[in-house]
Amino acid sequence: MTINKFAILSIALSTFFISCNDDSDTMDLESDYSNGILITGEGSGAITGSITFVPQDLSTPSQLIYKTENDSELGTHLQSMAFSDTRAYISVDNQHTITVVDRYSFKEIAKINSQLEHPRYMTVVGTKGYSTNWGSTAVDTDDFIAVIDLNSNTVEKTISVGLGPERIIARDGKLYISHKGAFDVNNIVSVIDIETEAVVEITVGDKPDELFFDANGNLFVLSEGAVEYDSNWNVIGNTLGSIAKINSQTNTVMTTINFGDEEHPSLLEIDGDNLYYFLNTEVYTLKTSDTSLPTTPLIETGGIYGMAIRDNQLYSIVASFSTLSDLNVYDLSSKSLIETLEVGVAASKIYFND
Question: Structure pTM?
Fold first, then answer.
């Protein structure tokens, strides 16, 4: 698709969004985006990254809420959001920027655009933010964690880490980072002591992405596994996807559950003692104590790009990179689709803004 076509599509989508807002109760400058669901859209081509607000009752969504409140664009690719008690931090990869907004009004507070390089994900610990950053595509040793002073909204220092840091979570004074590998492949989880900045690496499967703690402090990591190619980009093999259970006290892998050859799972979620993941066109579930994979799926969803679980409901995203995406909501007891709503272009991440 040419740039001109993307420009035309962008104008058309803007008109559509304005029309939608005109037909509904448009929020004014004192908008309240609490008690609902925030959906980030990566954007695509000439179409900006965006954020959609879905009310808790799953009524009419409000599109482009950042643009509505600030009369400006976020740009592509909007990778993720992180939250403090009162603020949201929007990481936009290609803009090398983290935009700080009030998490309930979405009014902009600041832009952090110095000392960042492809910011991916961020977590908040007290008055500090920790942002994973990919470095140059030509260098495998310049990836880092940016340490951000949240009072001044400035990067105060960086911590060097291995190739392709992705998701980041915090627990008990430590940071846990999955290294999917950026433009290559990696197979480690980094553990950083926040006080000393000492880094320990744990080997897991290829392309680790989502990671969560259970109630007992065990760390679960989903690794997608990698597709291997020859010099002519012919597929010559696959490495195994897996779910690793890690003892966070000793930084050792307790158990690893491997998937079959050519199976590449994604979108791990945790809810209580249940793990959920997506494979092919279906969502599966298993207990955190299980040592083998389920043989039957929980629910058929078709191809999805994002997923979240809450209150016995599955929220999944069928992404479109040229027009609005679909948010599908399923009741997990009946395994039935209860609602479909339109959300942003290339929608991917789901957040509950309580």
Answer: 0.90
Burial of 250 (0-12, 13-18, 19+ CB in 10 A): exposed
Q: Give 44's DSSP letter.
A: B
Q: Looking at residue 140, what is its pLDDT? A: 81
- Phi/psi of residue 71, nearest 5 degrees: 55, 40
Cβ-in-10-Å burial (0-12, 13-18, 19+) of 139 comes to exposed
By the 8 A CB rule, do 297 and 282 touch? Answer: yes
What is the spatial distance between Cα 167 and Cα 163, in angstroms, rounded to a whole number? 13
Q: Which residue has the tokens 């990671």?
A: 211
H-only helix segments in 65-154: 65-70
Q: CA-CA distance, 299 to 272, in Å (whole number)?
A: 19
Specify the DSSP element, H or E, that contains 13.
helix 3-23
Tell me: the pLDDT tens digits for 75-128?
999 999 999 999 999 999 999 999 999 999 999 999 999 999 999 999 999 999
Residue pair 294/265 in contact by the 8 Å Cβ criterion: no
Is 136 in a helix, a strand, or coil?
coil
Report which of 246, 330, 249 is spatially closest to residue 285, judged by C-alpha positions.
Answer: 330
Reply yes or no: is the peptide bond before residue 96 cis, omega within 30 of 0: no
